[in-house]
Design goal:
The protein is mainly beta and 366 residues long. The chain folds into 3 domains: 113 residues, no CATH class; 128 residues, no CATH class; 91 residues, Roll (Ubiquitin-like (UB roll)), CATH 3.10.20.30. Helix content is 10%, strand content 35%. The chain has 5 helices and 27 strands. Strands 1, 2, 13, 14, 15, 16, 17, 18 and 20 form a 9-stranded mixed beta sheet that branches. Strands 6-5-12-11-10 form a 5-stranded antiparallel beta sheet. A 5-stranded mixed beta sheet has the order 22-21-27-23-25. The termini are far apart. The structure holds FE2/S2 (inorganic) cluster (FES). The site of FE2/S2 (inorganic) cluster has 14 residues, from loops.
Length: 366
């Protein structure tokens, strides 16, 4: 039977993992996990996808305070007793959350470290956010209360990589040692320690997996590109399983993982499989820049725009944040995902440049 080998929390979204021998599982996930987040001055969330140096912020608990250290920065103590009473509307993916603004001094520290004005917010007792399409509460984790990674799946991925990665590349809350790689794909309900979990959905990955948690340096394309060769399904590149706790309770490293229910696993393929046509040239007209370039029907529009010197804003590069949306004025694209767009935006012709491939000559407005 698999066992729970590691438990991790990330008190502030995107900071370095804290390893724990045991943790209290609450409705929103592990106690103290992702209760803080950084936002820009417009309220948009800031993460390690765009600012990989965030992964080098080390957080230690000291009674009710947090002690932060980061390369070339003085230590910062975050004291909840000093928090303001001001709420800030904070956008995480497509959710808007009323979160508590912590303190200007903390904003200054992070602004200096990230070289960008930002604000630290706290998921207060009256802050509200739910898992998409569910009434399950969640704080500032990406989409679900907990993430499970199977070390055997990491080992299989590593057998395909020149430079092995660790489970921490995938920012898990819990790591287990399954007997087989990807055995977790077929689980629908498990029990660890006192807690039953719904194994809710595979975790759709993005370029954040390319950030080395030890150094905070992002590799150009690995391991994400390799994952895309064998873990691709309907627009997503999946690795790990999202969990929803069904009750509160303690979990401890060494606990056995009991599989209570299973289902058929998704059959994964390669992202390249979606491309049926042979490679052909297409003309891509960027209306905003009045530039037309020759591209192809094999690469993502965002990659092709960058190669042409067109700067389309982006953040996740994985179809999650909506930052790269552009309007398709003419032509046809293969849509890998449009999850980050509203129905109105889709009807108006918006597409995600990071998640679509031109199929014909196209005109986009950016
Ligand atoms: S960059 Fe986030 S959806 Fe495209």
């Amino acid at each position: 039977m698999p066992t729970l080998t590691d438990i991790y929390i990330y008190p502030i979204k995107s900071v370095k993992a804290i390893s724990q021998p045991a943790a209290l599982v609450e409705e929103k996930g592990l106690s103290f996990d992702r209760r803080y987040m950084l936002i820009d001055l417009d309220g948009n969330f800031i993460t390690g996808r765009s600012h990989p140096q965030l992964t080098q912020v080390d957080v230690q608990f000291s009674q009710k305070k947090l002690q932060l250290s980061a390369p070339n920065m003085a230590q910062l103590v975050i004291d909840p007793a000093q928090f303001s009473t001001t709420s800030l509307t904070s956008q995480i993916w497509i959710d808007k959350v009323n979160a508590l603004h912590c303190h200007q001094d903390y904003d200054n520290w992070f602004s200096e470290y990230l070289q960008q004005p930002c604000q630290l917010v706290f998921f207060a007792p009256n802050s509200q956010r739910c898992v998409k399409g569910r009434n399950t509460p969640i704080a500032f984790a990406d989409g679900y209360p907990l993430l499970l990674i199977n070390q055997a799946s990491v080992d299989l991925l590593n057998s395909k990589l020149d430079n092995p990665v660790s489970a921490l590349h995938f920012r898990p809350n819990i790591v287990i040692n399954g007997e087989l790689p990807f055995v977790e794909d077929s689980w629908s309900r498990i029990k660890i320690g006192d807690v039953e979990f719904e194994v809710s959905k595979p975790c759709s990955r993005c370029s954040f997996t390319n950030v080395d948690p030890k150094t905070g340096i992002a590799h150009a394309n690995q391991p994400f590109s390799t994952l895309a060769t064998f873990r691709y399904h309907q627009g997503d590149v999946d690795f790990g399983q999202n969990l929803i706790p069904l009750n509160n309770g303690m979990i401890r490293t060494g606990d056995q993982v009991q599989v209570l229910a299973t289902h058929d696993a998704i059959l994964y393929g390669s992202q390249g499989d979606v491309l049926q046509d042979n490679k052909k040239s297409v003309q891509i007209h960027y209306q905003g820049s009045e530039i037309t370039v020759t591209g192809d029907n094999q690469q993502l529009l965002l990659d092709q725009a960058e190669q042409a010197g067109i700067a389309i804003p982006y953040s996740c590069r994985g179809g999650k944040c909506g930052r790269c949306k552009v309007k398709l004025i003419a032509g046809e694209v293969e849509t890998l995902t449009n999850e980050a767009l509203t129905d109105d935006e889709i009807n108006e012709g918006y597409i995600l440049a990071c998640s679509c491939i031109p199929l014909s000559d196209i005109t986009v407005n950016h």
